[in-house]
Amino acid sequence: DVLFREGQTLGGHVTYTPRLIAMDVNGSLRTLRQEGCLYDPGGDISAVTWDGSLMIHKESPPAKNSFLEDLDNLETLAVADVNSSQPGYSGLGGVASATSQVSPIQKDYKLEGSVKVWSDFLRIHLHPRTVSVIHQYNHDGEANRLRAFDQGEALLQGLLLEELEDKLHFFAEECDYLQGFQVLCDISDGFSGLGSKVTEMLQDSYSGKGILTWGLSPVSYSNSTPVKELCHQLNCTVGTVHLARNSSFFCPLSLRGSLSRKHSSPTTFPLLTYDPSLWYHSSAVLALALDALTLPYRMRNNSTPMHQVAETLAVSGRKVVAAYGAIPFPMMHGASLFDALSSCTDALPWKPLSTCPEATDGRCYGQLVTLKGFEGQRLTRSETPTWS
Protein backbone atom coordinates (compact mmCIF):
# COMPACT_ATOMS: atom_id res chain seq x y z
CA ASP A 1 0.00 0.00 0.00
CA VAL A 2 2.91 2.40 0.50
CA LEU A 3 3.34 2.53 -3.27
CA PHE A 4 -0.27 3.62 -3.86
CA ARG A 5 -2.27 6.73 -3.07
CA GLU A 6 -5.96 7.35 -2.53
CA GLY A 7 -7.59 10.18 -4.44
CA GLN A 8 -10.97 11.46 -5.50
CA THR A 9 -12.40 12.51 -8.83
CA LEU A 10 -14.47 15.64 -9.41
CA GLY A 11 -17.54 13.43 -9.22
CA GLY A 12 -16.62 12.21 -5.75
CA HIS A 13 -15.47 8.72 -6.75
CA VAL A 14 -12.54 7.31 -4.78
CA THR A 15 -9.49 6.36 -6.86
CA TYR A 16 -6.50 4.18 -6.03
CA THR A 17 -3.43 4.85 -8.16
CA PRO A 18 0.31 4.21 -7.77
CA ARG A 19 2.73 6.92 -6.69
CA LEU A 20 4.53 6.67 -9.99
CA ILE A 21 6.23 8.88 -12.56
CA ALA A 22 6.77 6.99 -15.82
CA MET A 23 8.81 8.40 -18.70
CA ASP A 24 8.77 6.68 -22.10
CA VAL A 25 9.23 7.54 -25.74
CA ASN A 26 6.63 8.33 -28.38
CA GLY A 27 4.54 5.34 -29.42
CA SER A 28 4.92 3.37 -26.18
CA LEU A 29 1.40 4.03 -24.86
CA ARG A 30 -0.63 2.59 -27.75
CA THR A 31 -4.17 2.18 -26.32
CA LEU A 32 -3.33 3.93 -23.04
CA ARG A 33 -4.26 7.60 -22.73
CA GLN A 34 -1.46 9.74 -21.33
CA GLU A 35 -3.80 11.42 -18.84
CA GLY A 36 -5.46 8.11 -17.90
CA CYS A 37 -9.18 7.47 -17.87
CA LEU A 38 -10.10 8.14 -14.23
CA TYR A 39 -10.23 11.91 -14.56
CA ASP A 40 -12.08 13.18 -17.63
CA PRO A 41 -10.31 16.32 -18.89
CA GLY A 42 -13.37 17.31 -20.92
CA GLY A 43 -13.61 18.15 -24.59
CA ASP A 44 -11.90 20.99 -26.34
CA ILE A 45 -14.34 23.90 -26.29
CA SER A 46 -12.01 26.47 -27.78
CA ALA A 47 -13.60 28.45 -30.60
CA VAL A 48 -12.24 28.11 -34.13
CA THR A 49 -11.21 31.55 -35.36
CA TRP A 50 -9.79 30.47 -38.72
CA ASP A 51 -12.05 31.46 -41.63
CA GLY A 52 -10.30 29.36 -44.25
CA SER A 53 -10.77 25.72 -45.07
CA LEU A 54 -9.79 23.09 -42.52
CA MET A 55 -8.09 19.78 -43.16
CA ILE A 56 -8.33 17.21 -40.37
CA HIS A 57 -5.96 14.25 -40.18
CA LYS A 58 -7.03 11.35 -37.98
CA GLU A 59 -5.24 8.17 -37.07
CA SER A 60 -7.15 5.13 -35.93
CA PRO A 61 -6.12 4.03 -32.42
CA PRO A 62 -4.54 0.59 -32.02
CA ALA A 63 -6.97 -2.21 -31.31
CA LYS A 64 -7.06 -3.53 -27.75
CA ASN A 65 -6.21 -7.15 -27.12
CA SER A 66 -8.65 -9.55 -25.47
CA PHE A 67 -7.22 -8.93 -22.00
CA LEU A 68 -7.75 -5.16 -22.14
CA GLU A 69 -11.20 -5.61 -23.68
CA ASP A 70 -12.25 -7.88 -20.82
CA LEU A 71 -10.96 -5.33 -18.31
CA ASP A 72 -13.11 -2.64 -19.93
CA ASN A 73 -16.15 -4.92 -19.89
CA LEU A 74 -15.69 -5.81 -16.24
CA GLU A 75 -15.28 -2.16 -15.30
CA THR A 76 -18.50 -1.28 -17.13
CA LEU A 77 -20.33 -4.06 -15.31
CA ALA A 78 -18.88 -2.93 -11.98
CA VAL A 79 -20.16 0.62 -12.54
CA ALA A 80 -23.58 -0.77 -13.41
CA ASP A 81 -23.47 -2.87 -10.24
CA VAL A 82 -22.76 0.22 -8.12
CA ASN A 83 -25.56 2.18 -9.76
CA SER A 84 -28.02 -0.67 -9.26
CA SER A 85 -27.27 -0.74 -5.53
CA GLN A 86 -28.33 2.88 -5.08
CA PRO A 87 -31.74 3.59 -3.44
CA GLY A 88 -34.72 3.60 -5.76
CA TYR A 89 -33.15 1.21 -8.23
CA SER A 90 -33.91 -2.49 -8.34
CA GLY A 91 -31.34 -3.97 -10.63
CA LEU A 92 -30.92 -7.53 -9.44
CA GLY A 93 -30.54 -8.67 -13.02
CA GLY A 94 -27.61 -6.32 -13.49
CA VAL A 95 -25.87 -7.68 -10.40
CA ALA A 96 -26.33 -11.26 -11.55
CA SER A 97 -25.01 -10.50 -15.00
CA ALA A 98 -21.98 -8.75 -13.53
CA THR A 99 -21.22 -11.76 -11.36
CA SER A 100 -21.57 -14.13 -14.28
CA GLN A 101 -19.14 -12.07 -16.35
CA VAL A 102 -16.28 -12.18 -13.84
CA SER A 103 -15.10 -15.56 -15.14
CA PRO A 104 -13.63 -14.30 -18.46
CA ILE A 105 -10.83 -12.47 -16.60
CA GLN A 106 -9.66 -15.85 -15.28
CA LYS A 107 -9.23 -17.40 -18.69
CA ASP A 108 -5.86 -18.24 -20.16
CA TYR A 109 -4.81 -15.33 -22.36
CA LYS A 110 -2.34 -15.95 -25.16
CA LEU A 111 -0.79 -12.50 -25.51
CA GLU A 112 2.70 -13.51 -26.61
CA GLY A 113 1.98 -12.54 -30.20
CA SER A 114 0.08 -9.31 -29.51
CA VAL A 115 2.00 -7.61 -26.69
CA LYS A 116 4.33 -4.92 -28.01
CA VAL A 117 4.65 -2.48 -25.08
CA TRP A 118 4.04 -2.51 -21.34
CA SER A 119 0.68 -0.77 -21.67
CA ASP A 120 -0.68 -3.80 -23.56
CA PHE A 121 -1.00 -5.73 -20.30
CA LEU A 122 -1.43 -2.90 -17.77
CA ARG A 123 -4.25 -3.69 -15.36
CA ILE A 124 -4.21 -0.76 -12.92
CA HIS A 125 -5.29 2.82 -13.55
CA LEU A 126 -2.71 5.60 -13.57
CA HIS A 127 -2.90 9.14 -12.22
CA PRO A 128 -2.98 11.96 -14.81
CA ARG A 129 0.39 13.19 -13.50
CA THR A 130 2.08 9.82 -13.92
CA VAL A 131 3.01 9.50 -17.61
CA SER A 132 5.47 11.76 -19.41
CA VAL A 133 6.08 11.16 -23.12
CA ILE A 134 9.43 11.98 -24.71
CA HIS A 135 8.33 13.09 -28.16
CA GLN A 136 11.85 13.50 -29.59
CA TYR A 137 12.34 9.74 -29.82
CA ASN A 138 10.24 6.85 -31.13
CA HIS A 139 9.50 3.39 -29.86
CA ASP A 140 9.38 1.73 -33.29
CA GLY A 141 11.44 2.06 -36.43
CA GLU A 142 15.10 2.80 -36.97
CA ALA A 143 14.92 6.60 -36.96
CA ASN A 144 14.94 8.79 -33.85
CA ARG A 145 15.68 6.00 -31.38
CA LEU A 146 16.97 6.64 -27.86
CA ARG A 147 20.01 4.38 -28.17
CA ALA A 148 22.95 6.03 -26.39
CA PHE A 149 23.74 7.15 -22.84
CA ASP A 150 24.57 10.73 -23.81
CA GLN A 151 21.24 11.11 -25.64
CA GLY A 152 19.31 10.32 -22.48
CA GLU A 153 21.62 12.42 -20.32
CA ALA A 154 20.89 15.48 -22.46
CA LEU A 155 17.10 15.05 -22.19
CA LEU A 156 16.55 16.18 -18.61
CA GLN A 157 16.44 19.92 -19.14
CA GLY A 158 13.96 22.61 -20.10
CA LEU A 159 10.29 21.64 -20.19
CA LEU A 160 10.91 17.97 -19.44
CA LEU A 161 12.84 18.86 -16.29
CA GLU A 162 10.15 21.29 -15.16
CA GLU A 163 7.45 18.68 -15.79
CA LEU A 164 9.35 16.06 -13.79
CA GLU A 165 9.96 18.42 -10.86
CA ASP A 166 6.29 19.45 -10.81
CA LYS A 167 5.11 15.84 -10.74
CA LEU A 168 7.73 14.87 -8.19
CA HIS A 169 6.68 17.63 -5.79
CA PHE A 170 3.02 16.68 -6.22
CA PHE A 171 3.56 13.08 -5.13
CA ALA A 172 6.22 13.81 -2.49
CA GLU A 173 4.40 16.61 -0.67
CA GLU A 174 1.30 14.49 -0.01
CA CYS A 175 3.31 11.75 1.75
CA ASP A 176 3.11 11.60 5.54
CA TYR A 177 6.47 9.84 5.79
CA LEU A 178 8.66 9.86 2.71
CA GLN A 179 11.11 6.95 2.93
CA GLY A 180 12.72 7.48 -0.42
CA PHE A 181 12.47 6.61 -4.09
CA GLN A 182 12.60 3.54 -6.30
CA VAL A 183 14.17 4.21 -9.68
CA LEU A 184 13.73 1.62 -12.43
CA CYS A 185 15.30 2.23 -15.82
CA ASP A 186 16.61 0.32 -18.81
CA ILE A 187 20.40 0.55 -18.60
CA SER A 188 21.07 -0.90 -22.06
CA ASP A 189 19.84 2.13 -24.04
CA GLY A 190 19.55 5.89 -23.65
CA PHE A 191 17.38 5.58 -20.56
CA SER A 192 20.56 4.80 -18.63
CA GLY A 193 21.63 8.40 -19.19
CA LEU A 194 18.19 9.76 -18.35
CA GLY A 195 18.08 7.64 -15.20
CA SER A 196 21.48 8.88 -14.09
CA LYS A 197 20.32 12.50 -14.33
CA VAL A 198 17.13 11.64 -12.43
CA THR A 199 19.08 10.04 -9.57
CA GLU A 200 21.43 13.02 -9.54
CA MET A 201 18.45 15.36 -9.19
CA LEU A 202 16.97 13.22 -6.40
CA GLN A 203 20.30 13.18 -4.58
CA ASP A 204 20.50 16.98 -4.72
CA SER A 205 16.87 17.64 -3.76
CA TYR A 206 16.20 14.83 -1.27
CA SER A 207 19.53 14.09 0.37
CA GLY A 208 19.14 11.70 3.27
CA LYS A 209 16.29 9.78 1.65
CA GLY A 210 16.76 6.30 0.27
CA ILE A 211 17.32 6.07 -3.49
CA LEU A 212 17.15 2.42 -4.52
CA THR A 213 17.91 2.04 -8.22
CA TRP A 214 17.20 -1.06 -10.28
CA GLY A 215 18.85 -1.28 -13.69
CA LEU A 216 16.88 -3.46 -16.10
CA SER A 217 18.07 -5.08 -19.31
CA PRO A 218 16.40 -7.69 -21.56
CA VAL A 219 17.81 -11.08 -22.43
CA SER A 220 18.00 -10.38 -26.16
CA TYR A 221 17.09 -7.83 -28.81
CA SER A 222 15.37 -8.28 -32.14
CA ASN A 223 17.41 -7.38 -35.23
CA SER A 224 20.55 -7.06 -33.15
CA THR A 225 23.99 -6.54 -34.71
CA PRO A 226 27.53 -6.63 -33.23
CA VAL A 227 27.61 -2.83 -33.30
CA LYS A 228 24.30 -2.58 -31.45
CA GLU A 229 25.45 -5.17 -28.90
CA LEU A 230 28.58 -3.14 -28.25
CA CYS A 231 26.43 -0.03 -27.78
CA HIS A 232 24.26 -1.91 -25.28
CA GLN A 233 27.36 -2.93 -23.32
CA LEU A 234 28.70 0.62 -23.23
CA ASN A 235 25.36 1.93 -21.99
CA CYS A 236 25.26 -0.71 -19.24
CA THR A 237 28.83 0.05 -18.15
CA VAL A 238 28.54 3.84 -18.10
CA GLY A 239 25.03 3.68 -16.65
CA THR A 240 26.11 1.42 -13.79
CA VAL A 241 28.87 3.83 -12.78
CA HIS A 242 26.66 6.94 -12.82
CA LEU A 243 23.55 5.33 -11.30
CA ALA A 244 25.53 3.77 -8.44
CA ARG A 245 27.24 7.07 -7.71
CA ASN A 246 23.96 8.92 -7.07
CA SER A 247 21.97 6.09 -5.44
CA SER A 248 21.87 4.49 -2.03
CA PHE A 249 22.48 1.25 -3.87
CA PHE A 250 22.29 0.03 -7.45
CA CYS A 251 21.10 -3.46 -8.40
CA PRO A 252 21.14 -4.67 -12.03
CA LEU A 253 18.25 -6.99 -12.89
CA SER A 254 18.36 -9.23 -15.93
CA LEU A 255 17.89 -12.86 -16.90
CA ARG A 256 20.59 -12.60 -19.53
CA GLY A 257 23.18 -14.53 -17.53
CA SER A 258 26.05 -12.20 -18.43
CA LEU A 259 26.54 -8.74 -19.91
CA SER A 260 29.74 -9.74 -21.71
CA ARG A 261 29.91 -10.04 -25.49
CA LYS A 262 30.36 -13.79 -25.18
CA HIS A 263 27.14 -15.74 -25.57
CA SER A 264 25.81 -17.01 -22.25
CA SER A 265 22.72 -19.03 -21.47
CA PRO A 266 19.79 -17.18 -19.88
CA THR A 267 18.90 -17.86 -16.28
CA THR A 268 16.73 -20.93 -15.91
CA PHE A 269 14.53 -22.07 -13.04
CA PRO A 270 13.77 -25.75 -12.43
CA LEU A 271 10.10 -25.13 -11.59
CA LEU A 272 9.37 -22.33 -14.07
CA THR A 273 9.04 -22.39 -17.85
CA TYR A 274 9.37 -19.13 -19.79
CA ASP A 275 10.63 -17.89 -23.14
CA PRO A 276 13.73 -15.70 -22.57
CA SER A 277 13.40 -14.13 -26.03
CA LEU A 278 10.02 -12.59 -25.11
CA TRP A 279 10.25 -9.40 -23.08
CA TYR A 280 6.66 -10.13 -22.05
CA HIS A 281 7.89 -13.27 -20.23
CA SER A 282 11.22 -12.05 -18.86
CA SER A 283 9.72 -8.83 -17.48
CA ALA A 284 7.08 -10.86 -15.63
CA VAL A 285 9.77 -12.95 -13.94
CA LEU A 286 11.73 -9.85 -12.92
CA ALA A 287 8.56 -8.14 -11.68
CA LEU A 288 7.80 -11.15 -9.50
CA ALA A 289 11.32 -11.04 -8.09
CA LEU A 290 11.18 -7.28 -7.54
CA ASP A 291 7.91 -7.66 -5.64
CA ALA A 292 9.69 -9.95 -3.17
CA LEU A 293 12.92 -7.95 -3.03
CA THR A 294 11.13 -4.73 -2.07
CA LEU A 295 8.89 -6.39 0.52
CA PRO A 296 10.91 -5.37 3.65
CA TYR A 297 10.07 -1.66 3.34
CA ARG A 298 6.52 -2.18 2.03
CA MET A 299 5.15 -4.15 4.97
CA ARG A 300 2.55 -2.61 7.26
CA ASN A 301 4.07 -4.12 10.41
CA ASN A 302 7.73 -4.82 11.24
CA SER A 303 8.91 -3.03 8.12
CA THR A 304 12.49 -1.96 7.50
CA PRO A 305 13.03 1.62 6.25
CA MET A 306 14.58 2.06 2.82
CA HIS A 307 17.70 3.76 4.16
CA GLN A 308 18.29 0.87 6.57
CA VAL A 309 17.93 -1.65 3.73
CA ALA A 310 20.52 0.32 1.76
CA GLU A 311 22.90 0.53 4.73
CA THR A 312 22.64 -3.23 5.24
CA LEU A 313 23.64 -4.04 1.67
CA ALA A 314 25.87 -1.14 0.59
CA VAL A 315 28.68 -1.75 3.08
CA SER A 316 31.79 0.45 3.05
CA GLY A 317 30.68 2.33 -0.04
CA ARG A 318 30.09 -0.80 -2.14
CA LYS A 319 26.86 0.38 -3.76
CA VAL A 320 26.51 -2.22 -6.52
CA VAL A 321 24.59 -5.21 -5.17
CA ALA A 322 23.38 -8.46 -6.73
CA ALA A 323 19.99 -10.16 -6.55
CA TYR A 324 19.19 -13.86 -6.53
CA GLY A 325 15.85 -15.60 -6.55
CA ALA A 326 14.12 -18.97 -6.41
CA ILE A 327 10.98 -18.64 -8.52
CA PRO A 328 9.08 -20.40 -7.14
CA PHE A 329 10.76 -21.44 -3.91
CA PRO A 330 10.77 -25.29 -3.71
CA MET A 331 8.74 -25.64 -0.53
CA MET A 332 6.03 -28.28 -0.59
CA HIS A 333 2.67 -27.71 1.06
CA GLY A 334 2.78 -28.82 4.68
CA ALA A 335 6.58 -28.83 4.81
CA SER A 336 8.76 -26.44 6.78
CA LEU A 337 11.46 -24.05 5.67
CA PHE A 338 14.00 -26.27 7.39
CA ASP A 339 12.89 -29.26 5.32
CA ALA A 340 13.03 -27.25 2.08
CA LEU A 341 16.58 -26.04 2.71
CA SER A 342 17.71 -29.46 3.91
CA SER A 343 16.63 -31.00 0.62
CA CYS A 344 19.01 -28.70 -1.30
CA THR A 345 22.04 -30.94 -0.90
CA ASP A 346 23.85 -30.13 -4.15
CA ALA A 347 23.22 -26.40 -4.52
CA LEU A 348 21.08 -23.65 -3.08
CA PRO A 349 17.79 -23.06 -4.94
CA TRP A 350 18.20 -19.40 -5.88
CA LYS A 351 19.49 -18.32 -9.26
CA PRO A 352 21.33 -15.11 -10.22
CA LEU A 353 19.13 -12.21 -11.35
CA SER A 354 21.93 -9.67 -11.79
CA THR A 355 23.98 -11.11 -14.69
CA CYS A 356 26.72 -12.28 -12.34
CA PRO A 357 27.49 -15.66 -10.77
CA GLU A 358 27.39 -16.15 -7.04
CA ALA A 359 30.73 -15.65 -5.31
CA THR A 360 32.16 -19.01 -4.28
CA ASP A 361 34.92 -17.72 -2.02
CA GLY A 362 32.54 -16.54 0.70
CA ARG A 363 32.99 -12.82 0.06
CA CYS A 364 29.64 -11.46 1.17
CA TYR A 365 29.46 -8.12 2.96
CA GLY A 366 25.72 -8.02 3.59
CA GLN A 367 22.60 -10.03 2.88
CA LEU A 368 18.85 -9.48 2.92
CA VAL A 369 16.54 -12.47 2.44
CA THR A 370 12.77 -12.38 1.91
CA LEU A 371 10.31 -15.26 1.67
CA LYS A 372 6.94 -14.44 0.16
CA GLY A 373 3.75 -16.38 -0.39
CA PHE A 374 3.94 -18.96 2.40
CA GLU A 375 1.33 -17.67 4.83
CA GLY A 376 0.38 -20.44 7.22
CA GLN A 377 3.44 -22.55 6.43
CA ARG A 378 5.88 -23.52 9.15
CA LEU A 379 9.29 -21.91 9.14
CA THR A 380 10.71 -24.35 11.69
CA ARG A 381 10.25 -28.05 12.27
CA SER A 382 7.43 -28.85 14.67
CA GLU A 383 8.76 -32.13 16.01
CA THR A 384 11.16 -32.11 18.93
CA PRO A 385 14.59 -33.57 18.14
CA THR A 386 15.68 -36.64 20.07
CA TRP A 387 19.09 -36.87 21.65
CA SER A 388 21.00 -40.09 22.25
UniProtKB/TrEMBL annotation:
Residues 114-298 form the DML1/Misato tubulin domain. GO terms for cellular component: mitochondrion. It is found in: Cytoplasm; Mitochondrion. Pfam families: Misat_Tub_SegII, Tubulin_3. One of its GO terms (biological process) is mitochondrion organization. Residues 1-72 form the Misato Segment II tubulin-like domain. Involved in the regulation of mitochondrial distribution and morphology. Required for mitochondrial fusion and mitochondrial network formation. This is Protein misato homolog 1. It comes from Takifugu flavidus.
